From TrEMBL:
Keywords: Glycoprotein, Immunoglobulin domain, Signal. Residues 1-16 form the signal peptide. Pfam families: Ig_3, V-set. This is Carcinoembryonic antigen-related cell adhesion molecule 3. SUPFAM superfamilies: Immunoglobulin.
Amino acid sequence: LLASLLACWHFHTTSASVNIESVPPHVVEGENVLLLVHNLPENLSTLVWSKGENIRDNAIGLYTLSQDVSAPGPLHSGRETVYHNGSLLLRNVTRKDTGFYTLQSLNSHEDIASRTTIYLHVHTSNCGCPSTCAQITIESVPSSIVEGESVLLVVYNLPENLRAFFWYKGGIVSKNIEVAWHQIARNTTGFGPAYSGREIVYSNGSLLLQNVTWNDTGFYTLRTLSRDLETELVRVQLQLDTSHCGHHPSTQPTVESVPPSVAEGGNALLVVHNLPKDIRAISWYKGAVAFKNQEVARRKIAAKSSVLGPAHSGRETMYSNGSLLLQNVTRNDAGFYTLQTVTTDLKVGLVHVKLLVDTSLSVCCNSLTSVQLMIEPVPQNAVKGDSVLFLVHNLPEDLRAFAWYKLGHNNQKFKIAEFSRVTNYITHGPAYSERAVVYTNGSLLLQDVMQTDAGVYVLQTLNRDFKTEKAYVQLHVYKPVTQPFIQVTSTTVTAQSSVVFTCLSGDTGVSICWIFNNRNLQLTERMTLSPTKCQLSIDPVRREDAGDYQCEVFNPVSSRISLPVSLAVTNE
């Protein structure tokens, strides 16, 4: 079958809409990688994968859609599986698997409908664990500074095929907090709204901050863009040494990791200091940004009880003083944690801490220790109409079967599909949709996601000893936001009077920030924000308040900025 198809293809028709994504983007020897296919043409008859760009001699396998049958090619090693949606799973990869992979699709007339190539790089392993040698890292030099000094954010392992890089002041990527960008080909640098005049960008990616102030503290994000338009984000936290700052008493909340570095399997306590007395609520988030789907737990002081969030794994305990205990930590727990405080006057504060996990006695080097079943949503936040993959890590080696469920009201489980390794067969459940694809490695792909797909999904595994294990993942589906606009009580006001700006948006569940003369608005004692930040009041107005005002609305997947509204201030 394969030989006859390779001999009779016609090469006069092409299409350029298909794209392929490597999941995970970085794969290490011994791991599995899924070459996930998006936007396949309709009315196809056959899908063919090859190693390299020569289809005829290097075919791995094909899938005939009309007959729902697959056939191996000359380069099939027994570790590859071709799925009906075109995706290719490579198991237990080695360095020899590095190279180009080409997917070619044929229509019913045996004409080529699409031809797409992706390059896969397999990294070497270190004690069976992923090597970090190819990952971008940022080091703060010096690691501890005082106000008025300079600090260099040194970048290591910048990609060789780099097209451009961008620096942002904050934990997210947003145009209004862009500090600077650098284009490699032209060796040119540009500056964004968050540029203060004290930053210097170097062509190796590093960023120098001169004469730092307290306003410079917080997260900085580096975004890289490769020549094949792949992006990568790396964050670093800048903190000032308060031991030499007598004029800045440490009354602001801080978080300390005890111990500073914890071994896998141990416990870590994130101790909160200087919690405000007028505290109303406390929330913990896994990551550098306070996104709802990354919430671990929150506590309302009046209620004297904690509510668990989507990122709660069952191993975290939140105390009334705000501290967070993490038990039996794994390498996946490493990284930034964010504490959000809300006071009785609705002022929101953010404090970050980085948890370091010592992997020198890692489970990857100890075959007697089991690893936890985990689900990673790719991408982290889903856009309506896009696809999302629930990528499963640490599926039991002695797996007998697994099943996917979606939780309904009252935690009622609705089965999507079940896979039996004994029969190597997938059975669809009542909650199955044709937009869902279940892979034998446990992962679940949801295509063309809708708002009704949002919710909690459960993966349940059964091993040969009939022991079960569950893992949960929450899916949030967002719509791209629309452009807001500003209403103002008057565009021309006299000094010492008042003015109110209102940011109007047709979207729900969005966050709002205000921009003044192309920079983040620095609130003064004369300015008041409404609880949702949709209204900005200035009372009394001064001459320095004259200028352009804008508001930005954003959710985890998109942001839009309003057109500017100019405020003129006249004498009394």
